[in-house]
Amino acid sequence: MTKKTIKKISILFLSVFLISAFVLPVYASADYDDEYDDEYDDEYYDDSYDEYYDDSYDELSADDVDAYEQWVKEGITDSDADTSRNRPDWWPDDVDSFEDFHNQNAPRIVDNADLFTDSDEAKLTDLILKSIAATNADLVIYTDTTNYGLGNQMCAADFYQFNGYGIGDDYNGSVLFINMDPNQREYYTAARGDCRKYLTQDTINDLQDSCYDEMKSGDYEAAMEKYIQAVTGLFTTGKVPESFGAFMLRLIVCIVIGAIAGLICIAILSSQMKKVKLADKAREYLVQDSVNMRVANDFFLYATVTRTKIPKDSGKGGGSSFSGGFSSHGGGSFSGGGRSF
Question: Can you tell me the mean pLDDT for 252-271?
Fold first, then answer.
């Protein structure tokens, strides 16, 4: 056979191989699926199933139908449908038609996680009311064992808005949400109105630092006392007040660093000095007739001051999350941040 004939035969065998390997299995699989579906329908499917489901849907209440349509509208998937059905009791019936309102009688401590005793709540409420008077900004502490599938950030903001918290037309104030869910344990601060401008990455870190040790050790009443003091200072002066312990530590560090630097400079200058023989009188140190000072003047030329901010490493919880701006489900504008513990 010629090379041309051999080439044609090879191409033919290759074509047959490709058809056998790819086309026939697909066709066979499709045919098998059709046969299997027919057998499955005959054995397991009955027209009564259609009737059952139709009747069941007809028996749903109007509220159930509205709730289902609302879930679809909000883009809730099947995976979190159960969470959606378990909204908190403060969740509005119709989020789309929700309008902001002021609730003067709303409690400033809502302790669903049972972290405080009655006396703790009374003491903390008194501190909160004093803070509100000093800052003209609302302050709320909310604890729970879940965030209802909303996420800690959104749960804090929604709780604040849907319960009517806030002062003035911009609903100025903040909420601290403590989520005790073991899988999402975090304390999160969300602020609305004028208070938003005070929350930055640095101030959020300082706020969380102010009570981190107490939060981690479980001394929640003491943690909230420190937090209220810190947030009051932030909303009145623009910065979180430094604790006495932190101030003393910083002072000691500065003194030690200054002393070490001074000793190093003295050692260097001393090594550069020429040693002379001790004399009884000071003039004996001078070379005779080498100094003739008649007039002495001091002229100030200039001064240069360089300041460098020393970055702080709190070493507490690995830092805080921060969001400069986000919207709640009610449409309110918030900023905030939190830290796990």
Answer: 77
User: What stretches of 165-243 show up as alpha helix (H) in DSSP?
Assistant: 201-217, 220-237
Could you read off the pLDDT of 39-93 as tens digits, one per residue? Answer: 434 443 344 434 433 444 344 455 555 554 554 444 444 434 444 557 899 999 9
* Cβ(203)–Cβ(240) below 8 Å: yes
Q: Which pTM does this prediction carry? A: 0.58
C-alpha span between 53 and 289 (Å, rounded):
121
180: confidence class by pLDDT, cuts 50, 70, 90: very high
Is there a single domain that holds both residue 67 and residue 193? no
Query: Within this chain, do residues 331 and 203 fall inside the same structural domain, yes or no?
Result: yes
How many of the other CB atoms lie within 10 Å of CB of 247?
11
Same domain, 135 and 26: no
* Contact between 175 and 190 (Cβ < 8 Å): yes
Q: Distance between CA atoms of 326 and 155, rounded to whole angstroms?
A: 12
Find, among 190, 187, 177, 91, the residue nearest to 141 by Cα. 177
Provide the sign of the torsion angle of the four alpha carbons 8, 10, 11, 12, taken in this order.
Answer: positive
Residue 287 maps to a domain:
no
Enclosing domain of residue 20: 3-45
Give yes or no: residues 30 and 120 share one domain: no
Q: What CATH number has the domain bearing residue 327?
A: 3.10.310.50
Cβ atoms of 329 and 158 within 8 Å: the answer is: yes
Tell me, yes or no, whether 21 and 144 share the same domain: no
